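## retry 2 of 3
previous attempt timed out at serialization; input unchanged, resubmitting
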Amino acid sequence: MNREELEGYIYTETLLAQLYRKAAAMATRDVERNTLLQFSQEATQNANYLNYFYRQEFGSNFDPIIPEGNITGTYRDILNEILNQEIRSFLVFRNQTYFQNNFDFKETMRYISDIKLGHILTILAILTDMNKPVQQ
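## retry succeeded, writing output
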């Protein structure tokens, strides 16, 4: 695996953790807020797992800084951005499970991909629920 790819994976997970925290702050329902905060913790943990391999390969951590100003928009906008990031990264991460020589890295990517699939389905459910007309 090359340095730029691994840095990109860590960056994406760090960005997702921040996006989830931002969305959680905007959520009006406790169940959504708690779920999004849990997803933020999982994305942070994913970045930590990836940093383990980064340290093994390059001898240091990669800790990207994502300016808070890059995370703007309505609740729906942020959820859509999360969904786009999760789908793109799911496909890339899942691809790493096929022809990877490092068994531990391959299994870590499989584990992260499985988590991402759950996130994707949950975000889709939240967005779908937002599209339902309000009943009185």
